[in-house]
Each structure stands twice: as C-alpha cells, then as structure tokens.
Amino acid sequence: MSSNKIAVVTGSNKGIGYAIVKGLCEKFNGVVYLTARDVGRGEAAVNKLKELGFNPLFHQLDVTDQSSVDKFKEYIKSKHEGIDILVNNAAIAFKNNATEPFGQQAEETIKVNYFATLRVSEALFPLLRNNAKVVNISSSSGHLSRIPSEDLRAKLGDSTLTIPDLNKLMEKFVKDAKDDKAYSEGWGRSAYVVSKVGVSALTFAQQRLFDNEQPNRNIAVNVVHPGYVVTDMTSQTGHLTTEEGAKAPLYLALEADFKGKYVWYDSQIVDWYGTTPSQY
Ligand SMILES: NC(=O)c1ccc[n+]([C@@H]2O[C@H](COP(=O)([O-])OP(=O)(O)OC[C@H]3O[C@@H](n4cnc5c(N)ncnc54)[C@H](OP(=O)(O)O)[C@@H]3O)[C@@H](O)[C@H]2O)c1
C-alpha cells in the first residue's frame, strides 16, 4: 500500500486530458494515473509521456462501463487507499454533420458526458482524501444561459436541486429528443449543450452534498470551461493548444482555494447564472 498522493484523469489518452496528465506529471508531487477506455491507446499515450521524461501510470477505465469503473475503484483502494485529485474529463461530441437521429445522439451524449461522470463520481468519491480536489470538465456550452427555456433554466439552476432530480431532467431531455420534442420543450438543438449544463449543475449539487453532509472532508468540486481547444473533438480547430486548454483545469486541481464554482479558461470564476464573457 502506498501513501503517495494520487491524481486520476479520465479519458486522458489524448486531447485536453492528456495535457492535464502531462501538467500533473510536471507539477503534482504524487502518482498520476492516465486512464483510457482502450488499453492500446492508453499505453501508447503513457509511452509518449515516458519519452518526454515523465512517469504516469496507466489503468483501463471506460467511464460508461460499471464493471470497468468498479475494477478501477478496487484497484485504487487496494493499492493506494485514496485519491487527492480527480479530473472528470472524458466526453464525446457528435459532429455537426452527424447523420445519427437526434434522439440517438441525445441518448449517447447524455450517457457518456453526464451519467458516466456521475458514475465515476459515485464510485470514486468515497475514496477521496480530506482536502481532495475534483475538477469536472464542462464547456462554454455548459453555461446555464445556453438552455433556451426560462422554466428549464429555473429548474437546472435551482440551488436546492438534488442529483436524483437532475437525473430526471437529463432523462426527460433524452425522451423529448426521441419524441422529436426537444426543441419545442425548450432544450435547444444541442445534446452536447444539455449534457454539459448537466455536468455544471451536477458539480454544484455535488459540492452542496459535501458541504452539508461531510464538511470536515474539505473537498472542493469545481467545473471548468477549458477554452476552444485544438483536439479531435473540435476536428483540430480551436484557438488554444491542449497545453493552454489544460491550464485552468490544472489551476483548479493544484492551486484554487474555492469550491463549487464555474471557471473560465483564463481561470476566472464566471457567474453560471449570468452571461458568459464570450461565446467560447
Ligand atoms: N476541445 C474543446 O474545444 C473543448 C471545449 C470545451 C470543453 N471540452 C471538453 O474537454 C474535455 C476533453 O475534450 P477534448 O477536446 O480533449 O476531446 P477529445 O480529444 O475527443 O478527447 C476525449 C477523450 O475522452 C475519451 N473518452 C470518450 N469516451 C470515453 C469513455 N466511455 N471512457 C473513457 N474515456 C472516454 C476519449 O477516448 P478515445 O480516444 O478512446 O475516444 C478521449 O481520450 C471534454 O470533456 C470536452 O467536452 C473541450
């Protein structure tokens, strides 16, 4: 059993997650886990970092697969007991020209981006050590203002919203999308937006639970828009490099002393209920 400090980043074989692992290897005094759903892609990423002189460890983790999540949890529990930094980064986005029916896009996007983030959190939160930091990666798309309906904004932004109630809202969106009613019901036209607003709302609910039920653990859960970053998700468009996109997540993982906030890529706190500083 090691008493080292432990950091875990989901979906980190490429893109912003990979850059977060690299930054943690540089700045975090502890063991860094690069995790990926695909062992080959994960090990290739670890080897790339080893060539740069870093030494992350690898473990398989498919965030949508309960048995994979359970295995990872048991592994961390037996090997290290606890986690000090958890970055929920793994996500998907359908391309604008995707041909899958919108209901299918909605179901898959909510499953990976929202429910799998919740799944990983539920599994790993009991392992968080006192003073741990959780960083949920959202997006500018995860700002409350991106939901057109005032009624839905009021529900999603309710300061007493519970996780079960939020789950019901996410399920309702998927049902509305399948029934071809998502737009008329006020969700807008983007499953990615709804999933990331869900991740933002989840963050605030998670922080409330820690504050109300386990204040002595002093755990911080924050949510961040990493910026518009050149990755496969954006088809290699974007204004920022992956290293630049990793900056605010790394700030939240290593330095920030606040809790339950929505943070922009310049590491500034943004009012989730107000307006965004810019589109991206
Ligand atoms: N790029 C941007 O401009 C931007 C802007 C705002 C927010 N974000 C957010 O930033 C985060 C990283 O995005 P990115 O741009 O770096 O995207 P990316 O290059 O597409 O990387 C996404 C990562 O998530 C992994 N992943 C997907 N499904 C998974 C699953 N079921 N289990 C485990 N890992 C899974 C992918 O693994 P595979 O290689 O196996 O597919 C990949 O490693 C996401 O949360 C995204 O929504 C990105």
Offer a few descriptive terms.
280 residues, alpha/beta, Rossmann fold, 8-stranded mixed β-sheet, 8 helices, 8 strands, binds NADP nicotinamide-adenine-dinucleotide phosphate
Summarize the topology:
Elements lengths: L5 E4 L5 H13 L3 E6 L2 H13 L5 E4 L5 H14 L3 E6 L13 H23 L3 E10 L12 H7 L6 H16 L12 H23 L6 E5 L17 H13 L7 E2 L5 E2 L10
Parallel strand pairs: 1-2, 1-4, 2-3, 4-5, 5-6, 6-7
Antiparallel strand pairs: 7-8
Bound molecules: NADP nicotinamide-adenine-dinucleotide phosphate.
Structure in words:
The protein is α/β, with parallel strands linked by helices. It has a domain at 6-98 and 113-140 and 199-270: 3-Layer(aba) Sandwich (Rossmann fold). It is built from 8 helices and 8 strands. It has helices at residues 15-27, 39-51, 66-79, 102-124, 150-156, 163-178, 191-213, 242-254, and strands spanning 6-9, 31-36, 57-60, 83-88, 128-137, 220-224, 262-263, 269-270. It has an 8-stranded mixed sheet with strand order 3-2-1-4-5-6-7-8, sandwiched between helices. α1 (15-27) links the parallel β1 and β2. The chain starts with 5 loop residues before the first strand and ends in a 10-residue tail after the last strand. NADP nicotinamide-adenine-dinucleotide phosphate binds at residues 10-11, 13-17, 36-38, 41, 61-64, 89-92, 112, 116, 137, 139, 225-226, 228-229, 231-234, 238.
